[in-house]
Amino acid sequence: MRFVDEYRREEDAQAFVRAIRARVTRPWTLMEICGGQTHTLLRSGIDRMLPPEITLVHGPGCPVCVTPLTQIDRALAIARRPGVIFTSFGDMLRVPGSTTNLLSVKAQGGDVRMVYSPLDAVRLAEQNPGRQVVFFAVGFETTAPANAMAVKRAKQLGLPNFSILTSHVLVPPAIEAILSSPQNRVQAFLLAGHVCAVMGTSEYGPLAARYRLPMVVTGFEPLDLLQGIHMAVCALEEGRFGVENQYTRTVTAEGNRPAQAVLAEIFEPCDRAWRGIGVIPKSGYRLRPAYAAFDATARFDVADITADEPKECIAGEILQGLKKPSGCAAFGTRCTPEHPLGAPMVSSEGACAAYYLYARAV
Amino acid sequence: MGCSMCLGVPGKVVKIEPSAVDMPMGVVSFGGITKEVCFAYTPEVVPGDWVLVHVGFAISKLDEDHALEVFKTLKELGELGELDVPQPARSS
Ligand code: SF4
């Protein structure tokens, strides 16, 4: 397929690996932020092709993984209500709450439906005026404009039976949290290309300057990732810092202005808990007061529901790049994709599931 | 496969319907499979363009000239001799 297959050619991948090998003189630790990139790195075996000096650690960029247990329990409580149609991207259906998951609620008679686009949920609300339609609005900056547009559309249509359970996360505050930790070992970042397609790159310049490290906006195909790693290694070896863009076919410095405008109209930043990491200031979105009527947490009165993470899971250290999944005592034994203890095992983009799936360092 | 919240899939715009409420909808072909897509965030796009689609929204127009940059870089690296490093076999 155009714009896909040409970035997967094995001989070109090997050429980049040789170029990286030619430049590297000492150990470097790089972090890719996005779970989609983690998955590609492992599936295509890039982690095994790189010279041993380069360590890849996997960042917190899987929105499924970092959605707190509390929020999942709230989703489950709403989905169980009679008269509710609970809609979600497919990725969230298997994520375990404290006692069950959305698929089990569906099996027990709850009306849980997977949607491709948040606009499909708005359409369901139009078609079912007698039912409450709730959309589980999860995602990074890439997905937030789509979810914002669903709310804007529902308001335009005057739909009283549509609401969203918001669980958005933002990348720059998470990077800041990782870099400001005294234990930090990340020396360069591969930035999530699709997040930057929406937000542009201007948020990252000040971070790269303050912590004096390179950040490379990177795409999702194997050649994109290898070129991104090559650019980061060249910058590290030359002592350069700042933001560079590997993914120019998709990302511009200013990003997507119309999407940013709708985001700013519908959402405002708020403090947000990340599963396994804790609260990061101003790292999430909530609905602005003008759109508060579309907030499912208030509509269904679930704000009181809270839950504690399983003690054994070291997701926090995994998501900050401090440990690899194989460093968790439960990995592959008490915790598997069939019986996940923590969220990095439940989503196929989570670092633990990707390591399990591609049999890394078991 | 892949997380719906990271995934962006390149596709070719087949048609776009005008819309009164700033929410133009259209059709994008992904290697023959077509889907309904919202173009509110890419008003500049016309049929025949390539776009990146994420959860039913076109979020950016793909730049065909920049799409070749990876390969240009590889060629330059070849000319610099950086691709000629012998590869030792890895033990693991
Ligand atoms: S292997 Fe399971 S228990 Fe261990 S960190 Fe990963 S998700 Fe948590």
Write the layout of secondary structure elements.
The complex is a heterodimer of chains A (362) and B (92).
Chain A: H1 10-23, E1 28-34, H2 35-43, H3 46-49, E2 54-61, H4 63-66, H5 69-80, E3 84-88, H6 102-107, E4 111-114, H7 118-127, E5 132-139, H8 144-157, E6 162-169, H9 171-180, E7 188-192, H10 193-199, H11 204-211, E8 214-218, H12 222-238, E9 242-245, H13 257-266, E10 267-274, E11 278-287, H14 296-299, H15 315-319, H16 343-346, H17 351-357
Parallel strand pairs in A: 1-2, 1-7, 3-4, 3-5, 5-6, 7-8, 8-9
Antiparallel strand pairs in A: 6-11, 10-11
Helix pairs in contact in A: 1-12, 7-8, 8-13
Chain B: E1 9-17, E2 25-30, E3 33-38, E4 50-54, E5 57-61, H1 69-80
Antiparallel strand pairs in B: 1-2, 1-4, 2-3, 4-5
Iron/sulfur cluster binds at residues 312-315, 318, 325, 328, 330-331, 335, 340-342, 344-345, 352 of chain A.
Assembly type of the chains comes to heterodimer
Net shape of chain B: elongated
Give the strand content of chain A. 15-25%
Mean pLDDT over the full residue set of chain B: 83
Q: Considering DSSP H and I runs of 4 or more, what fraction of the residues of chain A is helical? A: 40-55%
Cα distance, first to last residue of chain B? 28 Å
Please tell me the total number of domains of chain A. 2
Number of strands of chain B: 5
Question: Would you list the SSEs of chain B in sequence order as H and E?
Answer: EEEEEH
Which sheet architecture does the biggest sheet of chain A show?
Answer: 6 strands, mixed
